[in-house]
Design goal:
- By secondary structure, the protein is mainly alpha-helical.
- The protein is 82% helix and 0% strand.
- Helix 3 crosses helix 6 and helix 5 runs antiparallel to helix 6.
- The radius of gyration is 15 Å and the shape is flat.
Length: 132
Amino acid sequence: TISSNQKDAFIAYSRLAELSHDRKDFERAERLYLQSLDVLMSPSDLSNTYQIWLKSMNGKKSADFGEPIKYIDSNLRKKLLEHGRNIAGVLNNLSVLYSEQSKEESAQAIHDRCEAVMYFSSYGQTVRETKE
């Protein structure tokens, strides 16, 4: 779980990033999106999530939920359950930002990481719903 100060920081960074993005201040928007993301998830956690997702896809159009989830550390799994939607939202905005600057390779890389976060976040939501 994150502290209320971290939550406030995330909200502030993401809102400022969106304002900067709207004003076409791309450098500032990128920096603020990355700062807001860093409040919720470390770059290494994002990389690990992406690598596990990539292995689970193995050339398929959709991943099999059962197998890859066991390779995710329990703390990371909890983080994805609690904050996955917010993380995915920031990643999506960052991907759009890169697309607007014609940085298509970067946009696609960020979009893929967004897909990975959404995949594991929705897996947790599916598990939670079946237990209720």
